[in-house]
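Let us work through a complete example step by step.
Step 1: write down the sequence.
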Amino acid sequence: MLEKYKLKTDPQGMVGRECPKKPCKAYFKIKEDDTYGDVDLTCPNCGNKANVKKYTTEEQIKYINSLIFHRNACPIEASKYSKTPPCSDYVERPSHYTYSCDVCKNKFGYDAKPHFCPYCGSSRDHLHEESVCYLGNIK
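Step 2: predict the structure and record it as tokens.
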């Protein structure tokens, strides 16, 4: 079902993911191409391993459900003539840091120093900071 509905990306072309483990719920970013299919991810914070679909954020679920409800023809605003609610929308926020993994060569976004690579599960010894995003500091 998720493959049918395209998720939004941040300015770096990455899609947000959220750890499904209740006490963790860490938010991180992966490449858009790795959002669909039968891919397993590792939470960069707690090391939880699960299918990529389990890492869908609450905002993404609301967005997809509204697309399903409206059959992909979403009204942007509620009309006084329509009792149909507008689509739920969301914006992917950029991560503060982008990291690369020495083992699998993938890049991902995370707001703190990660413990694991979301792609291959390698430890933090193999992860290196690539860039810093200052968009969150603009007022």
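Step 3: interpret the result. The two ends are 38 Å apart (CA to CA).
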